[in-house]
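re: ur msg from earlier - yeah i can do the xanthosine-5'-monophosphate complex, just paste it... oh wait u already did. ok heres what im feeding in:
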Amino acid sequence: MLDRILIIDFGSQVTQLIARRVRENEVYSEIQPFNKVTFESLITFNPKGIILSGGPASVVEIQSPRVPQAVFSYGVPVLGICYGQQTMCIELGGKVEKSNNREFGRAFIDITDSCALFDGVWNKGDREQVWMSHGDRVTQLPPGFRVVGASEGSPFAAIVDDARRFYAVQFHLEVSHTPHGIQLLRNFICNIAGCQNNWTIHAFKKKAIDAIRHQVGSGRVICGLSGGVDSSVVAVLLHEAIGDQLTCVFVDHGFMRQNEANQVINTFRDCFNIKLIHRDASKFFFNKLIGKIDPEEKRKIIGTNFIKIFENEARKLGGADFLAQGTLYPDVIESISTTSGSSVTIKSHHNVGGLPDRMNIKLIEPLRELFKDEVRTLGHELGLPDKITKRHPFPGPGLAIRILGQEITKDRLNILKKADAIYLDEIQNANLYDEIWQAFVVLLPVHTVGVMGDSRSYDYACTLRAITSIDGMTADFYHFSNEFLTSVSNRIINEVNGINRVTYDITSKPPGTIEWE
Ligand code: XMP
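and the outut:
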């Protein structure tokens, strides 16, 4: 049985980061919303330690989220972070008040005493950098606690109840701006909670293969393959578990990047020997999009027809018992989160979430416990090449949403494919691909005047986009050198007939989005 840490979520932006940090220590962790935790659920999950996350609420308010008492009676060590510290204090008989001395960002704490959380990291008398983000603060300790660290804004920045093994800090130890945070977390997980480091991707792979074999039995599985990281890893993992009981279906809508469709076929059919149906539906999709300009309409047409074609291929196979999907842990957390709710639709991202109901088919989701970086490591472990495991995200509707404000024609699609291929080629050659989260070219609905040789040109303008990001929710534009941008611009203008001007997009998200439409 794996040792496990439970993270109780109070809605912090960085709760997932806590879970990842725990797993980086090779200890399995899961996140559960605060209002789903009961004594029974703790017995079922069987954690060796519990971490209470931060959160946006104020414990001073009556309706605010509270840590369930079961957490304290369960008998394992508990670590409260920020809001987690405050709700812990209130529930155990301490006091929290609004403070005029709010701390946001870098702060320093004075280590006033030693404790197991600080062992080998911080010593009495040290002054240490931490990251704070709080308005309220603890003003009276609960019985049994002592203070071990204080900052200017928080006299009780780090507190301990040694007998019960309860630890609570006002600062965020999970973020990199608390330079020793990871070591403190390791002290909690390994020394205080006593977890063994037995969560590895190698161990996960073996367990997942056994679980797939058990779930599928002699049934047949169908898997939609796009060439992206998640579906590729699902396909190869399933193939290793059940061989030819798996059939992959690659619906090619024709809006992939240059040569990408061939790469998918070569990798999976030729290298991995996976049964793969390649349905070239490029003409079909092209015809469906004639005269369509509005991005949401393009997305809808591509999304619904994609599903229809996939269903059709599944039917032709004579039915399958399971549909494999690349659901990841962040999707699972989002669907059970207490903070997820209706929000404004900025773009309707195409997903195939409705498929299992429509097809009346059981789901198999072997990656639902993993974060994206763990999926990449698993892909590597399964022998997938770097060009797949490290591949940038690519939108479902593909290049169709990068031909802006105009009808998709063969000519425009070819121009965009060529420019995009040159840009990515230059990024690879400069060894920048892995530093960048996503990079692509957008074809603009603008013609500009230029001089090529001695004659006038009147061709398209395009823009280059490159961003860094953690999860695509926020993003910064990438700072290329002038030499790099000059070289890409020269190559695109010289090698792509139809483009005579290259621009670079320096918008972050927000206020921009990553794609242009
Ligand atoms: P935005 O443009 O919303 O993009 O900042 C965030 C991430 O989502 C991708 N994206 C899509 N993915 N279908 C998808 O599967 C879509 O319609 C779609 N639109 C945007 C985008 O490439 C980026 O990675």
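cool cool. The first helix runs from residue 15 to 24. ping me if u need the other ligands too
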